[in-house]
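Dear H.,

Thanks for agreeing to be a second pair of eyes. The structure we're designing against is below in token form, covering all 469 positions.
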């Protein structure tokens, strides 16, 4: 395999990183202190894990749900291949509470609700009409969904006190399970404002953009930081479940451009939050490798035209955005979306794709609002009993220090030649889960797919990186 040729094309990017590392970049020598922020993603709460509780839940206020769940005979947290049940949610939030420290806010990057929630509701509520639910069934499902959202948010709020939860909406956060629909956004806007944001932003402005398309802007109090939460499920390619979203997408991208321009004019620093990241769908593409590890096609996360506009928009504001977060894959990974712009993907809490539950705690420079390091806490579901504990710290594991974006860019080519670091990355990818034949492992054969997805955002460069590895 031609590993040398695959790396050559990244020397220009690497040169930029080396300039920063030698003190020539804007973020050099700014590590004058730090603060920490907990990032959690992909909870995918499943209120139906014990079907015997359904009637009690459906007829009760969300404030009573915890007691109902505690009456269940199922006391073990969810295992691999499942969404999050109440025991897993409880130990997750207990760990978040223990590790909160002085974090000024929490970040949640989407997917509060479990997979297939509407369909499971119909089966339990009215099994005779589950395939073709009535208008009454649909209204009942929406009410139950709203209560599920309220319950999870109440549990989070009880764990973090008055700390705001900045967020992005995920593809499961809806009444359809196929991305945030208008009715869901309208009906839950007040919940997101009061329970997650804790009233920390201007309410009319938030409600206006959130109900328009699931995106919003938050100026963090007493800081120079502006956080923008996007709805990037809209950027996914149209499929049999999703019609063309071009009007809504271009409206959101125009709003993003305007929001970035405003932040720049006000002298702000920006962080971007999203759920579905740009670039390749590494897992799906990895299933198509041939006997040589090559691919003839690539499955991408976003529509290529939308991704182009997004990247061009970011390029208009160099240095403005210092931190970008994504989720959706449930895995511990990252993507270099443009020179000096690295997107960090937070592992999922739900072990739905065979991953161990995990979350990250990032440390930041207060001067530059850039990430310096992160620590991962995971829950080894093979342990008895499963509990969250320290998994690894990036700087210690990889022996890399300084601004995190620079370190991650330098790590990318090293993952080809440094087999020890490659083995670490592959182990960390599933948050420590030792994969079985029932899931999609990272193997020596398909590893180039997962490596190529780090540094190549468009389909052509991604396929070239894989096939010339």
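And this is the sequence the design step returned. I haven't edited it by hand at all.
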């Amino acid at each position: 395999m031609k590993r040398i040729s695959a790396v050559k094309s990244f020397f220009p990017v690497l040169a930029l990183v080396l300039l920063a590392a030698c003190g020539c970049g804007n973020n050099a020598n700014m590590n004058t202190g730090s603060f920490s922020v907990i990032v959690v993603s992909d909870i995918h709460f499943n209120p139906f894990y014990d079907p015997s509780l359904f009637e009690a839940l459906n007829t009760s206020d969300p404030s009573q749900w915890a007691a109902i769940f505690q009456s269940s005979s199922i006391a073990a947290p969810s295992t691999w291949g499942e969404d999050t049940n109440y025991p897993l949610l409880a130990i997750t939030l207990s760990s978040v509470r223990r590790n909160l420290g002085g974090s000024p806010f929490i970040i949640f990057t989407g997917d509060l609700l479990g997979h297939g929630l509407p369909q499971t509701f119909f089966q339990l509520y009215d099994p005779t009409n589950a395939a073709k639910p009535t208008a009454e069934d649909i209204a009942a499902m929406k009410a139950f969904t709203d209560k599920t959202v309220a319950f999870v948010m109440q549990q989070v709020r009880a764990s973090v006190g008055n700390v705001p939860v900045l967020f992005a909406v995920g593809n499961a956060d809806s009444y359809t399970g196929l991305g945030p629909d208008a009715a869901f956004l309208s009906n839950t806007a007040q919940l997101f404002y009061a329970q997650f944001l804790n009233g920390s932003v201007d309410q009319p402005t938030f409600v206006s953009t959130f109900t328009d398309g699931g995106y919003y802007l938050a100026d963090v109090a007493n800081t120079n930081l502006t956080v923008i939460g996007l709805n990037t499920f809209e950027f996914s390619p149209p499929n049999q479940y999703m019609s063309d979203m071009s009007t809504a997408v271009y409206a959101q991208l125009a709003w993003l451009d305007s929001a970035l321009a405003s932040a720049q004019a006000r002298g702000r620093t920006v962080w971007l939050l999203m759920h579905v990241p740009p670039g390749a769908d590494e897992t799906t593409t990895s299933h198509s490798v041939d006997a040589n590890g090559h691919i003839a096609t690539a499955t991408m996360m976003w529509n290529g035209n939308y991704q182009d506009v997004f990247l061009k928009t970011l390029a208009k504001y160099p240095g403005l955005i210092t931190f970008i977060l994504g989720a959706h894959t449930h895995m511990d990974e990252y993507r270099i979306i443009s020179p000096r712009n690295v997107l960090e993907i937070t592992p999922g809490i739900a072990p739905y794709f065979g991953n161990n539950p995990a979350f990250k705690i990032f440390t930041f420079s207060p001067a530059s609002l850039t990430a310096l390091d992160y620590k991962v806490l995971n829950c080894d579901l093979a342990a008895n009993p499963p509990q969250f504990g320290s998994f690894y710290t990036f700087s210690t594991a990889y022996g890399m220090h300084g601004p995190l974006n620079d370190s991650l860019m330098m790590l990318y080519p090293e993952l080809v030649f440094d087999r020890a670091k490659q083995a670490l990355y592959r182990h960390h990818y599933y948050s420590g889960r030792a994969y079985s034949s029932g899931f999609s492992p990272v193997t020596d054969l398909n590893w180039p797919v997962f490596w190529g997805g780090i540094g190549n955002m468009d389909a052509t460069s991604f396929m070239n990186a894989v096939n010339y590895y």
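Two observations from my side: The two ends are 6 Å apart (CA to CA). Residues 135-160 form the longest helix (26 residues).

Warmly,
E.
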